[in-house]
Amino acid sequence: MTYIVFFALLLLITLLASYLIVENNRKKAIEAKKKLFNARVSQVNTRLKLKLNELLDAKLIRPKYLPRIQAIVSNFFVVQAHTDENLNQLESTADLLINILSNELIKTYQSNVSQNLVDNIQYFVAELPLQGILYNKTFYQTILPALIVNIKTEDIEQLADNINNADETSETNSHSKIIQDEEIA
User: Fold this and answer.
1) Which of 50, 80, 125, 135 could make a disulfide contact with 75, Cβ separation 3.0–4.6 Å?
2) 124 near 148, Cβ under 8 Å?
3) Contacts of 16 (CB under 8 A, 6+ apart)
4) Which helix (H) or strand (E) holds 109?
5) Maximum distance among all alpha carbons in the chain?
C-alpha cells in the first residue's frame, strides 16, 4: 500500500511539473508574439518618422505637422483590437503614405516645383482628426486612403502637357481674336 501512495505522489509531482513547464512555454510564446507585434508597430513608426524627417529637411513640411502625421500610426490601436489583421492594415496604410510621399519628393527634386506638394500636405494635415478616438476603423479603411491619394501632385509630363496646352489655347484664342477683329473691320 505504501508503494501505491508513493507511486501516486510521484505521478502527481510529475504531472504538476509537466503542467508548469507547458504553462511556462505558453507564456513565453505569448510574450514572444507580443514582442514581435510591438516590433512591427515600432518599425512602421520608425519608417514614417524617417520619411517625415526627410520631408522636413527638404522644407516641404512644417515641424508642427510632424506630430499630427505621426498620430496616424500612434493612434491606430486606440480604439482597435491588437490583431494581425489590424496590424496588416496599419502596415499597408503606412506603406501607401510613405510611398506616395517618396514619389512626390522625387517629383519635387526633378521639377523644382514644391508648392503643390506643400499645399497638398497642408490639406492632408488639416483633414486629420484632432482627437485620438476619431482614429477608428472607418477612418483607416475609407477616409485615410482617400486623403493619402489627395497628396499626389501632377506628374512632370502632365504638368508640361498642361503648360503646352495652356500656351496652345492662348495662341488659339489670340488667333481667333485677330480673325474676329478682321471680320469686324
Assistant:
1) 135
2) yes
3) none
4) helix 84-111
5) 132
The answer for residues whose C-beta is within 8 angstroms of residue 55's C-beta and 6 or more apart is: 61, 101, 105, 121
Strands of 58-141 (E only): list them. none
Distance between CA 52 and CA 78 in Å, rounded? 22
pLDDT at res. 93: 93
Residue among 54, 57, 147, 46 nearest 103 (CA): 54
Place of cell 512602421: 44
State which H helix or E strand residue 14 sits in.
helix 2-57
User: Closest Cα partner for 124 from 59, 71, 50, 45?
Assistant: 71
pLDDT at 101: 93
Q: In which residue are the cell numbers 490639406 written?
A: 123
Walk along the chain (185 residues) in steps of 10 and give the mean pLDDT of each run. 88 95 96 95 95 91 92 89 92 94 91 88 92 88 92 68 53 52 54
